[in-house]
Amino acid sequence: MSSQILGLFVPSITLILAGAFAALWLRMRDARHVLAFSGTYMLVGLGFLLFHYAAAPTNIPAMIAVHTLYSVAGIMMFWGLYHRVGLYAPIRLFAVIQAITAVLMSVSIVGDDMRPWLYSANVGHGLIFALAARDLMQLGIRTSIDKVIVWVVGICSAMFFARPVLSIIVTQRMTVEVYKSSDYYALLMVAVGVLTLALAMSIVAAVLQDQMSMVREDSENDHLTGLKMRRAFEQSAMDMIDRGTRKNVPVSMIVADIDHFKQVNDIWGHQSGDRAIVAFGKLIQRMVRADDVCGRIGGEEFCIMIWNCELDPAERLAERVREAFAAMPHDGINSDVRLTASFGVATCRPQEGFGKLFARADAALYRAKEAGRNQVLADRREEKREPMAENAAAALATDEAA
To answer: Any keyword Transmembrane helix (predicted)?
Structure first.
């Protein structure tokens, strides 16, 4: 009776989790990795049921079927974890490992001894979990929840590698009946259930955190361009300036404004104007790096914060954007007409906040407008010294001369 209860323990947990992930996916249809997690736990549950009630070393087709269910489940789960953080999943490598494992299981099973099956299956699963933990640790950690997922995956890998060793310690020969009725199997079921639940809860927490981040981004981003709106941009810009000050890294700002935009709306209509706004937003998104921040801070006004960038490179970036936009055709606007934009550039000075930096870049933009538009001007003026500082410096020079 206890064996029957244990046989239903893990499948019950996994099937409940499969339903939970399916319900999450119904609310997040674009998140395909969530559907993959649902399929993962469905296959794991089916695999446990088949192993507990039908599989035996003498029934090689059933054992291969169990291994196939587990293998596909593992590959689906890791595809989901990789996809969630934007990584390419080495699906072919994982499939090759599990195929080799299946061959080893088929040729190594002798009689009704469970040990060859345990050795082959667990080493294969352990290797895949170890490779995934390595990849996610190196490239996929974004939050503390991601770290928890990596740790749980690593612990699962260690468990897979430990199981063959423990089976040798427990017994020298293990039939399926002895294996399923042993205290070792009972403890293993509990451990697997706990780790399965821990990994699932970690993934659920990560998915919910992703959903909250998406909601926050939707509220912070401009619906036309996808760029940050003014308030969100200013906060990101202030954070970048603070980080640059702490790390002694240069930070520059570009302020851009589409020229004669009111005339665009008046002549060709607001829809054409909106398309021009979208085109400019996509252009600057393509031309900046992941560490930079872009925002639409007004109707036709945009701002870019550039990380680790001095004034001259920032000015060259603005010039590339200007040239690309000036050469770009626009839907709804005559094919012989090209829109242009003006740019102001400034680099953050020591102890300077967002307000002063923006004022200098915006003043440079104003001068570019006044000079005829469709050009880039950088703020190269020397920082004005305070009168008290100038007087103190003059007095010091007089004292030294005396």
So the answer is: yes
